[in-house]
Amino acid sequence: MLERSLPLACLLSAAVAVAACAPDAAHLDSPGRTLIAFGDSITAGVGAEEGQAYPAILQQMLRVEVLSRGVPGETSADAVARVDAILAERPWLVLVEFGGNDILRRVPIERTEGNLRQVLDKLRSRRVAAVLVGVRAPYIGGRYAEMFERLSSEFDAPLVDDALADILADPALKADEIHPNATGHRRLAERSSRVP
For residues 189 and 62, is the Cβ–Cβ distance under 8 A? Predict the structure, then answer.
């Protein structure tokens, strides 16, 4: 089993090693072979130039292909609608980054949680490991933190919790109010690679 408290790049590095050495490990016995970053505009790299989004930087760091499947504007409901297409790409590990557009559109947090639970349940049912990238917002950040912790615990999905919140609180790391710039994307990958 993967350790939920480790940062993202360490988890992925560990997952690569575990999959190579022990393909029957819990959550890593999927017949899939790809790593997929599944999310919204942050995953798609809005705010950064081609090749500078965090999935591309993680790919460089890990020396393992990371497929970027981010679509700007998508909500957790869109994630539910698109998860079958993600599964069709035969992943063995999926980074799930949704929630920001739910916040912007004032989707009730209960609906967001239900949608993310459906996505994670579908991944688990296909024996695909999931990593959650937490999203927060002013005033409701605590409720979102609790939601991501619940989902992380329930689905045994490692959680990258505060990296995005810290980056988006620093104007020097943002392309606009809601997207990291190239430096912010690099910081997300670098901070995720460190063991706390």
Answer: no
